[in-house]
Specification:
Blueprint: H1 2-18, E1 27-33, E2 39-45, E3 50-58, E4 67-68, E5 84-87, E6 89-92, E7 101-109, E8 114-119, E9 121-122, H2 137-140, E10 144-149, E11 152-157, E12 163-167
Antiparallel strand pairs: 1-2, 1-12, 2-8, 3-7, 3-10, 4-9, 5-8, 6-7, 10-11
């Protein structure tokens, strides 16, 4: 009887330790919709709520050397825009003109929620300063999106359609993961 009781206590303890852990994680779908000049990065959470996380976008590995155009006269082609939050409980770190790293603090992103950031992205296929105005999904291919929550990192790589998926999954959905 003691062994069964200790086994049950162990399962409850472990389950409570895992509640809110990366095993019960978000499933994010990130897309870029190109406009001229307004580009919109959308972050949709299809999984468990995220809070106090950080999203880091690394465009240095993109197929087309994609960068952020924030100041007139810099490496971008024309119509620069500051990077701004359009909606969602997120905050954007300061971005220098020509930057290829974008960092976003995710305060809260509930299941089914969408956060959006507006920006102007150009590609560096030409010489910087003569960059292409429009960035297509295929030009984002290879760029990396990383979600950091606590001590865990989940990464997604943009595909030829300009979509990155980040996911950490548990078999039982959000919340307490059952341990057998």
């Amino acid at each position: 009887m003691y062994v069964l009781w200790m086994s049950a206590i162990r399962k409850i303890f472990l389950a409570s330790m895992l509640c809110g852990s990366p095993l019960a994680a978000a499933e994010l779908t990130i897309t870029l919709r190109d406009g001229n000049p307004l580009d919109i990065l959308s972050i949709r959470n299809n999984g468990c709520p995220v809070s106090d996380g950080t999203l880091i976008f690394d465009f240095t590995t993109s197929q087309a050397d994609v960068f952020l155009d924030t100041v007139r006269g810099g490496p971008g082609s024309r119509d620069p825009l500051a990077v701004k939050v359009m909606n969602g409980d997120i905050a954007v770190h300061p971005v220098a003109d020509g930057a290829q790293i974008l960092t976003i603090d995710v305060r809260t992103l509930n299941e089914g929620s969408i956060a959006q950031v507006s920006m102007d992205m150009d590609d560096g296929l030409g010489t910087r300063g003569t960059a292409q105005v429009e960035v297509y999904g295929s030009e984002l291919k290879g760029a990396v999106a990383t979600l950091i929550t606590g001590d865990t990192r989940h990464m997604g790589i943009f595909d030829a359609n300009g979509i990155a998926r980040i996911g950490g999954y548990d078999e039982d959905g959000c919340g307490v993961m059952l341990i057998s």
